[in-house]
Amino acid sequence: MVARYQRVRGMRDVLPGESERWREVEGAVIDVLGRYGFRELRLPLVEATDLFTRGVGEATDLVEKEMYTFDDRKGKSLSLRPEGTAGCVRACIENGLLHNQTPRLWYHGPMFRYERPQKGRTRQHTQIGGEVFGVSSPEIDAEIMTMLCRVFRELGVSSAVTLELNSLGSGSSRDRYREALVDYLSPHRDELDVDSRRRLGTNPLRILDSKVPTTRAIVRDAPAPVDYLGAESQRHFDGLRRLLDQAGVGYRVNPHLVRGLDYYTDTVFEWVTEALGAQGAVCSGGRYDGLVERLGHRPVPGAGFGMGLERVVLLHEACNERDYSRADVYMVADPEHAARAARVAERLRDGTPLRVLQHAGVGGLASQLRQADRSGARWAVIVGDDEVAQNRVSLKWLREGPQMGRGEQTMLTAAELISTLQGTG
């Protein structure tokens, strides 16, 4: 008996009907990135494991528990990429993109993390990320957030998302904050969840991001990074907030907002929503001014973001009703006139942006019209004996429209058909 194969747990198929929405969302994001001067960088799926352990941090959950890691035939440890920033930095260093340049780069594709699958969280998830190198001032932080604000506005979801903002500080100020946080949490050690007790000695800032209710209650009164900022970090944070205010970008300061990756310094941000249940973050990012140096290059400041498309697509679906039918026009023809209908279909494709689907297989005109209606198309174009005799086609409205009501039809020449449907797509 042949085995019945199923997709691997945590992976998913994007089916017809869904994929059209995905293309719309991806296209809108990529279009905005281009309008802000970002250029595409295509990255490999597989990188050396050490790139992530060194770049992201050995004590992070991502490296400790979530990476798909394996040895190749020569014993070299490789990993499926769990995030894009480290690989983007590696590509910039390796290809000389940081030499006397301030590149703005975007990338797109699957990332892999071994997590517990939930709605909006899969083990293979799709991300669009953007990075800017060589600019240390808060203007670039503000521009990235202004750009993302435009993305959400053009996707029609801006009313469902909120920008949260924080500063982690850098250098000695971050070290002072870490000590203060450990001093605060240590007396509560036995009350913390298991992961947080482990993190207390390795990555205590991650405890602020715990989702365990008892731990969240403890950290509610914990000291915040913004209370320990050095003078330079404070100026950067104040300047960023001033720029966002001037740009009309709304935000709220979340003093306990942290990111799960060690390379972040100073600015961190998240766009969050309450429309998707537990999976509230749809886009995150910040500064990582020490990452390039950590990966073996001279110091170069950097800032960027990563957008989880599974969640953004779900949000787009919740906020925007769309009819993603497979065709705009369905060609209906008597079998002996199929070749003539095919020529009309080609003229329509040449003269309009519409999707034209020609009936294939058996069936009379009545049967074909029923299939046309089920296809979701807005119009049926009919080529029957009467139409051929008058060197015309019939255009039938399958949906209510501004010009004609559902079920109404009119006979037109091919040129008139194109003129009537031009600009309707």
- Overall, the morphology is elongated
Radius of gyration equals 27 Å
Strand order of the largest sheet: 1-5-6-11-10-9-7-8
Q: Tell me the span between the first and last alpha carbons.
A: 48 Å
How much is the average pLDDT?
A: 91
Portion of residues within helices: 25-40%
Low-confidence stretches: none
Structure annotation, total helices:
15
Please provide the count of β strands: 16
Largest sheet data: 8 strands, mixed
Percent range for β-strand residues: 15-25%
Decide which structural class fits the backbone: alpha+beta
Describe the structure.
- The protein has 425 residues and is α+β, with helices and mostly antiparallel strands.
- Helix 1 runs antiparallel to helix 5, helix 5 runs parallel beside helix 9 and helix 12 crosses helix 15.
- The model has no long low-confidence stretch (mean pLDDT 91).
- The strands form three sheets. It has an eight-stranded mixed sheet. A five-stranded mixed sheet has the order 13-12-14-15-16, sandwiched between helices.
- It starts with 18 loop residues before the first helix and ends with a helix.
Quick take:
The chain is of the alpha+beta class and 425 residues long.
Give the helices and strands, then pairings.
Elements: H1 19-35, E1 39-40, E2 46-48, H2 49-55, H3 61-66, E3 69-71, E4 77-80, H4 85-94, E5 104-112, E6 124-133, H5 138-154, E7 162-167, H6 171-185, H7 194-199, H8 213-219, H9 231-247, E8 252-253, E9 265-272, E10 281-287, H10 291-294, E11 302-308, H11 309-319, E12 329-333, H12 338-351, E13 356-358, H13 365-374, E14 379-383, H14 385-389, E15 393-397, E16 409-412, H15 414-421
Parallel strand pairs: 1-5, 7-8, 12-13, 12-14
Antiparallel strand pairs: 2-4, 3-4, 5-6, 6-11, 7-9, 9-10, 10-11, 14-15, 15-16
Helix pairs in contact: 1-5, 1-11, 5-9, 12-15
